[in-house]
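hiii, so i know i said id send this last week but things got crazy w the move. better late than never?? heres the sequnce for the chain we talked about at the cafe, plus the structure i predicted for it. fair warning i was half asleep when i ran it
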Amino acid sequence: MVTPKKRLGQHFLTDLNIAKKIADSLNNRNNIIEVGPGTGVLTEYFIHDKTVNFKAIETDPEAYEFLQEKYKEFNNKLILDDFLKYDIISLFDINFSIVGNFPYNISSQIFFKVIENKDHITEVVGMIQKEVAERIASKEGNKTYGILSVLLQAYYNIEYLFTVNENVFNPPPKVKSAVIRLTRNNVKELNCDEKFFKQIIKVSFNQRRKMLRGSLKQFTKNICVADHDIFTKRPEQLSVSQFIELTNLLTK
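okay and structure toks below
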């Protein structure tokens, strides 16, 4: 078996029912990348399916060797590399989905990579820390609403699917987990400077207790903020469309 490594944030899922439930939650199954297959509990539901063009990217050499032995006839589907650094676009000629029991310590980075490749990733089903899942699915007006909430909801429909208890992992994490599904929406462009949009969101939430007239002071030198009610709000009060409106206002 594979020894779980704390530095890699490994908590291996042991419950086959939960694994099947995750696999069944993925609707777009033509082309799939699994992130961090570990011991292959989730891999089992994809790798044997001849209708699925499947790849699994594992960064742990020990886990990779274990999977190679377990799936000898499917070695071409296994990749030893760092998902965050890997050119995932090179794996498929057309769009694809991502699935996995994501390591807690890099789950946010995985979602930022999803945003970078949003034009190719049609769906994501991932198990992550419950707190992070709630934050991603949170709507404006909630304290958990933040940078990832806005950026992901701009391009994806978010669904919080179900909660997973600690006792179905080896080793058990200290917190509960949750499975979420991201489905690409119909937004092709945000009708604003998307790079500036991301910058505005990050600066706003880095000082989330301040009203926007304070946190965005560096961008409002040529604007009379008193003429716009939006600057009296705090970032968690703004919807995605209002952030787009704000970006265009500051761009002008």
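btw Strands lie at 12-13, 31-35, 53-58, 78-80, 96-101, 121-129, 156-164, 169-170, 177-184. thought thatd interest u
miss u guys!!
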